[in-house]
UniProtKB/TrEMBL annotation:
Broad class of where this protein is predominantly found: nucleus
GO biological process, one term: positive regulation of transcription by RNA polymerase II
Stretches the record annotates as Disordered: 1-88, 579-598, 605-627
Gene Ontology MF term list: DNA-binding transcription factor activity, RNA polymerase II-specific; RNA polymerase II cis-regulatory region sequence-specific DNA binding
Entry-linked Pfam families: T-box (PF00907), T-box_assoc (PF16176)
Top-level taxon of the source organism: Eukaryota
Cited SMART domains: TBOX (SM00425)
Protein name as it appears in the record: Eomesodermin
Localisation: Nucleus
InterPro entries recorded: p53-like_TF_DNA-bd_sf (IPR008967), T-box_assoc (IPR032385), T-box_DNA-bd (IPR046360), T-box_sf (IPR036960), TF_T-box (IPR001699), TF_T-box_CS (IPR018186)
High-level lineage: Eukaryota, Metazoa, Chordata, Craniata, Vertebrata
Record carries keyword Nucleus: yes
Length: 651
DNA sequence: ACGCTCGCATCAGGTGGGAAACGG
DNA sequence: CCGTTTCCCACCTGATGCGAGCGT
């Protein structure tokens, strides 16, 4: 409990949003009758909804501005994928017990970043750690104590969204605080730096610099999250629990390789409002019920583990499930209990612990919290916004059954078309200035890519699609790299075809590395990801099985170093190549041959789906092209798509 | 005969849609 | 009556098991 609270507190402080005593909101929450089902407590809402109307616009805009992008989802692969991992998900991670999640944050609100759109999505900064400095303003919660926003932030300022340990003290045990923030206060807390403010990397905290190591976290599938966020991400919650999609996937750097850490995600209210989808927009209506009880924390199954372990590969929370069933939470540590129609903010907590997993509650400096505003989402029992639905269908492999056909993807309304228009699509990249590519998130492709699996194989896919897929905003990001994106991996000449074709090559987060990162031998099949071993966590949505399968084993995994220097310009292509090449993921023993993978996926796609004649999967299909593609070409393409990770750092 | 790889079948589980049920 | 939640459905992915084919 304490830990949880502390964490929260710290997080809050860093995030900027202060924690407030839950009083007001909690009171209402308690009234609700059926917490379990999560139904939005109508009591409060009832009145609220009507009110909403008015509030709508403003709130909406924020919501719409969307920062949300979910990313979760993967299935088995993932967690399990890391079979090698010490802790099985099935088992209650030791750490889990330690974080009484229930007590943690149910009542806290996370101050939502105001989210100037520009700042959020478009701002190049978004990819960078949010500068703490900008959060300097103090947000005074109604009746609450005031917490300086960024007070906790590292001096360097980068911690945008990061909560520093020190913050805990401020919150005292009171459990209660919550961060507020709804849009109103906007400017105050947002972790988002003012547009363009993100100055440079220089500001970034360097791991190890200063007192104590400061971790830096990258949101691996950020592009996908952003895409959802633009429309205000929605996450389905069900009694049995529903996986997030997109799911949370991070890359961490800056940890002490030998120290042990618990890594867990906490989901807290992003604002004190109850939301309702009205008139095609999300509007606030009434107050949120912050009394909702239930598990709010999901401890990564591999916790505790060494810093080296966490930094070695991508850390995915693909198995994390969201539920509205209070009753299920105590027993099920894989589920986080939420309330429908409430906006939530996931937080990543990294707590240094002893080898046996015991944390030092007296040393707040050992806790670091990272918040990515684009991860905000509204919990729903049924999708409200069709744009979100379409995004889910287009990107979540398990929802392929709902894709009429690939063509449809292209025929979708321009407004929200998820997939690239003919011009945007795959080949558009060719037209796009190289500069953009460089910035372009490599990973984006993975997540953003709407194309059917078959398309994934296309070697070109990486770059091209990315561009095409990017929404205008995203494109902007590309143009002005919001955060730092890492260069994509380059095909290694020596690798086999599979590798070439494999997603991992292109998409695997692992492949994306910040400059200067050194590769480490990959031990486990792959990142802590949840998408099956083969699959990359970050791939969240795609079947990864195939691709991974024949990934060359033994390829060294590259660990990331501090990002500071990411600018593409600074990255020598050669170096990138090296890194990429060295970043291959090791293939899990269980992995089958590539052929089976590829063929399986690819063929199945062809068989099952009607491929559009013009944009046939073949055309885009990496399968063919990838093979032909030489390493160099590949590297070019990949190098274009640089970043994938949103990078946050605590200081 | 043994081991390995590949292909196929099967199963478990995830997904959104739609209709029904529920509750204010 | 309306909004929300729940349940069931068809479809899909991914993991696994089994047998066939091949090489040693």
């Amino acid at each position: 409990m304490q830990l949880g609270e502390q964490l929260l507190g710290s997080a809050a402080s860093l995030a900027g949003p202060p924690f407030y005593p839950p009083e007001s909101s909690s009171a209402r929450g308690g009234q609700r009758g059926q917490p379990s089902s999560g139904s939005p407590q109508r009591l409060d809402l009832d009145k609220g909804p009507k009110k909403c109307g008015g509030a709508g616009p403003g709130m909406l805009s924020e919501a719409e501005a969307g920062e949300p992008f979910p990313g979760a989802g993967s299935k088995q692969g993932a967690p399990d994928g890391r079979k090698a991992a010490p802790c099985g998900e099935a088992e209650l991670p030791p750490a889990a017990a330690r974080y009484p999640l229930d007590s943690l944050s149910p009542e806290r609100y996370y101050l939502q970043s105001p989210g100037p759109q520009g700042a959020e999505l478009g701002a190049p900064c978004s990819l960078f750690p949010y500068p703490a400095a900008q959060h300097g303003s103090v947000y005074q919660a109604p009746g609450g104590a005031r917490y300086p926003y960024g007070s906790m932030l590292a001096p360097g300022g980068f911690s945008a969204a990061v909560c520093s340990p020190g913050g805990r003290a401020q919150f005292g045990g009171g459990g209660g605080g919550y961060q507020y923030g709804q849009g109103a206060a906007g400017p105050l807390y947002s972790p988002y730096p003012a547009a363009g403010s993100c100055s440079g990397l220089g500001a970034l905290a360097v791991p190890g610099s200063g007192s104590g190591l400061r971790a830096q976290v990258f949101l691996c599938n950020r592009p996908l999250w952003l895409k959802f966020h633009r429309h205000q991400t929605e996450m389905i919650i069900t009694k049995q629990g529903r996986r997030m999609f997109p799911f949370l996937s991070f890359n961490i750097t800056g940890l002490n390789p030998t120290a042990h850490y618990n890594v867990f995600v906490e989901v807290v209210l992003a604002d004190p409002n109850h939301w309702r989808f009205q008139g095609g927009k999300w509007v606030t209506c009434g107050k949120a019920d912050n009394n909702m009880q239930g598990n709010k924390v999901y401890v990564h199954p591999e916790s505790p583990n060494t810093g080296a372990h966490w930094m070695r590969q991508e850390i995915s929370f693909g198995k994390l499930k969201l539920t509205n069933n209070k009753g299920a939470n105590n027993n099920n540590t894989q589920m986080i209990v939420l309330q429908s129609l409430h906006k939530y903010q996931p937080r990543l907590h990294i707590v240094e612990v002893t080898e046996d997993g015991v944390e030092d509650l007296n040393d707040s400096s050992k806790t670091q919290t990272f918040i990515f505003p684009e991860n905000q989402f509204i919990a729903v029992t049924a999708y409200q916004n069709t744009d979100i639905t379409q995004l889910k269908i287009d990107h979540n492999p398990f929802a392929k059954g709902f894709r009429d056909n690939y063509d449809s993807m292209y025929t979708a309304s321009e407004n929200d078309r998820l997939t690239p228009s003919p011009t945007d699509s795959p080949r558009s990249h060719q037209i796009v200035p190289g500069a953009r590519y460089s910035v372009q998130p490599f990973f984006q492709e993975q997540f953003v890519n709407n194309l059917p699996p078959a398309r994934f194989y296309n070697g070109e896919r990486t770059v091209p699609q990315t561009n095409g897929l990017l929404s205008p905003q995203q494109n902007e990001e590309v143009a002005n790299p919001p955060q730092r994106w890492f260069v994509t991996p380059v095909q290694q000449p020596g690798t086999n075809k599979l590798d070439m074709n494999s997603y991992e090559t292109e998409y695997s987060p692992s492949t994306l590395l910040p400059y200067g990162i050194k590769s480490l031998p990959l031990q486990t099949s792959h990142a802590l990801g949840y998408y099956s071993d083969p699959t990359f966590p970050s791939m969240a949505g795609w079947g990864s099985r195939g691709y991974q399968r024949k990934m060359a084993t033994g390829l060294p995994w590259t660990s990331r170093t501090s990002p500071p220097a990411f600018s593409e310009d600074h990255l020598p292509k050669e170096k990138v190549k090296e890194e990429i090449s060295s970043s291959w993921i090791e293939t899990p023993p269980s992995i089958k041959s590539l052929d089976s993978n590829d063929s399986g996926i690819y063929t199945s796609a062809c068989k099952r789906r009607r491929l559009s004649p013009s944009t046939s999967s073949n055309e885009n299909s990496p399968t063919m092209k990838c093979e032909d593609m030489n390493a160099e070409d590949y590297s070019k393409d990949t190098s274009k798509g640089m970043g994938y990770y949103a990078f946050y750092t605590t200081t």
